[in-house]
Amino acid sequence: MTFTLQQALIPVDQGYTTVDVRVVGDTITAISPSLEVVGTVVNCENKLLLPGFFNAHTHSPEMWQRGVIPPLPLELWLAELYDFAPLEVEKVYLSALGTAVETLLSGGTSVVDHLVLIPGQEIETIAATIQAYQAVGIRAFVAPLIWDQSLISGIPSGENQAENSIPGRSAQEILQMLEEAINKFHKPEAGVYILTAPTGIQLCSDELFVGCGELSDRYNLCRHSHLLETKAQQLLAQEKYGCSAVEHLNRIGYLSSRTSLAHCVHLTDDDIKILAETQSTVVHNPLSNLRLGSGIAPILKYRQAGVNVSFGCDGASSNDSQDLLEAIKIGSILHNVTDLDYQHWITPRQAVEMASLGGAKGLNLGEQLGSLTVGKKADLVLYDLTNLSLLPRTDPIGLLMLGRPTQVVDSVWVDGKRVVENGRVSTINVDDLKQELFAKSEWVTNRKSKTVSEFEAHYRSVMGLS
Ligand SMILES: [Zn+2]
User: What single DSSP character describes residue 356?
Assistant: First the structure.
């Protein structure tokens, strides 16, 4: 497919300029004030063209529980989440469709799905998720979420690791399943990438982390994990290793330029140095950090230390949406209250770069994705600057990053294929999806999590809550 975008507004060093952009196949082949028309013409008058953003950390099946979990910290919230997690592959398929649609319509062209697996149907869960992402046409980074220790061991002063292994789920068995998934599904040329993704130090043995590192090396895969999301995890790392989680992960070789780490809320200055030295990426999930009371990640410090930062929505039940533009806005301005020096604050243009190039770099694809550059892949988003929420005309990127943009995405291309046209997803029938999500759910007014009531007294005691 060859097409020419005509008269698109793009940002340049000094303000904005209007250009034509030629795409041949999956690649941007020319950008110039005026190009000879080749292929289909797309009129981009009064539209802003930006590289697609990365929803660099989410958990798509959480869509089934958005809006329902009460205000709880992560450790108790997780206990409730797993009590009610969907156990049907068909539901997993539908929530992946929903996650893809909401990501596309808020400026994203790539999603990193740290995918919660249905026990005993792990490969089927991954297959259904990939099928959904391919149906919508979003670039899919699927990171099967694995762990080999029981949920209670994620809380400090829990029982020791040996007693908390999960019967029938040894590190070796999990790694075998992961290798099968890699062999079946990892197809970068088709826009599907598998990542190794132990959930985090709180629920994973060293054996699992090291095994994931080896698979990542053998198959040239990116690595993902949660890292120090909560105060409890910081305490737990000291209990488990006698040092910080970052020091430990560095010691066992998990940190690298191909490693992206979600949250990174409770890191010391020494930890930050290690992230910079290892060229690891931080994925900032501001809304879930607020929702779960986890804290404010020191994003300005990461940027000053030269650590790459991108944005994620995190799962839809700790957010409780998948609006990437909202996550980027909050994730940018939140830090203004942490540093009096306004020269460190994140500007709207820096936020765009973090969400696009930052996301690409975190997945080791900075050379191929993340900017409007000739030779890069055509993952493009066109915003309608005549939309009421982007008027009157001031600074287009300021309006997009700082405002409350509503239904502003006009068109999206992923790998040169158009997947959104005139504000509507063109690859699947979203009305059908809405009907299915409605039909397969019910209003929930009163549910009780058994595991929360089992864990709560212990959690309150170790966290010093009366
Ligand atoms: Zn997460």
Answer: I
Quick: pLDDT tens for 349-390: 999 999 999 999 999 999 999 999 999 999 999 999 999 999
Cα distance between the two ends of the chain = 64
Give which of 290, 295, 144 is closest to 228, Cα–Cα. Answer: 295
Q: What percent of the chain has pLDDT over 70?
A: 98
Gap between the Cα atoms of 65 and 85, Å rounded: 8
Tokens of 142: 């699927």
Contact yes or no for 59/65 (Cβ under 8 A): no
Find the 293 Cα to ligand 1 centroid distance in Å: 14
Residue 289 Cα, ligand 1 centroid: separation in angstroms? 10
Q: How close is the Cα of 262 to the center of ligand 1, in Å?
A: 7
- Kindly give the distance from the C-alpha atom of residue 59 to the centroid of ligand 1, in angstroms, as a whole number: 6
Residue 162 binned pLDDT confidence (cut-offs 50, 70, 90) = very low
Residue 75 and residue 156: Cα distance in Å, rounded?
A: 10
Can you read off the two tokens belonging to residue 9?
């507004």
Of 110, 96, 52, 121, the closest CA to residue 316 belongs to 96
CA of 113 to the centre of ligand 1 (A): 9
CATH numbers and ranges of domains, the chain: 2-50+376-439 (2.30.40.10), 52-362 (3.20.20.140)
CA of 344 from ligand 1 middle (Å) equals: 27
Q: State how beta strands 40-43 and 27-32 pair.
A: unpaired
419 CB-contact burial (10 Å; exposed 0-12 / middle 13-18 / buried 19+) = buried
- Between the CA of 47 and the centroid of ligand 1 the distance, in Å, is 33
Q: How far apart, in whole angstroms, are the C-alpha atoms of residue 201 and residue 330?
A: 27
Q: Report CA(229)–ligand 1 centroid distance (Å).
A: 9
Whether this prediction's pTM lies above 0.85 is answered by yes
Separation of 153 CA from ligand 1 center, angstroms? 18
User: 433 with 42: CB under 8 angstroms?
Assistant: no
- Sequence-ordered list of residues with C-beta below 8 angstroms from that of 120, at least 6 positions apart, any chain: none
SS (H, E, C) 211-276: HHHHHHHHHCCCEEEEECCCHHHHHHHHHHHCCCHHHHHHHCCCCCCCEEEEECCCCCHHHHHHHH
Centre of ligand 1 from the C-alpha of residue 84, in Å: 17
- The 10s digit of each residue's pLDDT in 189-222 is 999 999 999 999 999 999 999 999 999 999 999 9
**Cα 4 to ligand 1 centroid, rounded to whole Å:** 38
- Residues 6 or more apart from 12 whose CB is under 8 A from it? none
C-alpha to C-alpha distance for 31 and 156, rounded to whole angstroms:
55
